[in-house]
Amino acid sequence: MEIEVQIRGYREDTDGTDLIIHLPEVRIGHLLGRKMIKSAELHLDDGRHITAAQRRKAYATIRDIANFTGYLPEEEKEWLKYLHIIRTGEAYFSLSGCSMDTARAFLNTILDYVIENGIPLSEPGMERTDDTGAYLYACIHHRKCAVCGRKGEIHHVDAIGMGRDRRTVDDSRCRKICLCREHHAAAHKRGMKAFTQMYHVYGITVPADSRLPMLETLNDISRFTLL
User: Fold this and answer.
1) CA atoms lying within 13 Å on the CB side of residue 51
2) DSSP of 110-153
3) What are the tens digits of pLDDT across the range 120-154?
C-alpha cells in the first residue's frame, strides 16, 4: 500500500529521529491493529523535480536504444522504465514529473544497459549521464571505453609499478578507468591530466569489498560518494 502523507513534525535524539506523520482522509487504525504492523518504508520527496536537461538526456538515450533494438521509442521507454523498477524496486514513475533523484537513477539504469549491450549513442556517454561516477564505474564493470563505448581495458591512473604481477596485486586503492586501445594509447601519450581535460573522464577507485566506487578526481579538487 502506498499513501501520500504529510510530515507534521519531528524530534531528533541520539538514537535517531521520531516523525509525526498525517495521512489525509485515510484511516488505517484497524489495519495497523489487526495485522500488528510495526514497520514501513519511507520515501522523502524534497520537492525537486526532473530538470529539462535530465529529460532531454533520457529521451535522447531512449531514442538511441530504440534505433538499435527496432522498437518504437514509446515502447522502448516503457520497457526501460519497468527494467528500472525491477532493478531498483522504485515505484512506477512518469518522466514528465518525477523527482530529480528518480530521473538520475533512471539515467543510470538505461546507460548501464547501453554500456552492457554495446549500444551506440549519437553523442558520448559522458554527455548523457547525470552521475559521472556511476557511468565510469559501469564502464569498468562492463569493460567498455568511457570515451567511445567500444571494448576496453583497464588503465591504471595510479601506476601499479614495473615488475609487479597485476593478477595478484591489490589495486583497490588505485584510481582506474576503462579505455579502448586507441584512447588508452592517447592517455599515455598526452598524459592523464591533458586527457581528462579533453574528454572529461577521470580515474576512480573501486574498493575490493564494494560493488560501488569511492570516487576521486585526478587533481583532488572534489570527492564524490555513491550512496
Assistant:
1) 8
2) HHHHHHHHT---SS-HHHH-S-HHHHHHHHHHHTB-TTT-SB-E
3) 999 999 999 999 999 999 999 999 999 999 999 99
Strand runs labelled E in the chain:
6-13, 16-22, 153-156, 176-179, 214-216, 223-225
The three grid cell numbers given for residue 175, joined into one nine-digit string: 584510481
* Structure confidence by residue, pLDDT tens digits, 98-122: 999 999 999 999 999 999 999 999 9
Is residue 176 within 8 A of residue 216, CB to CB? The reply is no
Query: Distances from the Cα of 195 to the Cαs of 121, 147, 157, 199, 223, in angstroms?
Result: 21, 10, 11, 6, 19
Residue 96 C-alpha cell reads as 514528465
Neighbours of 183 (CB within 10 A): 21
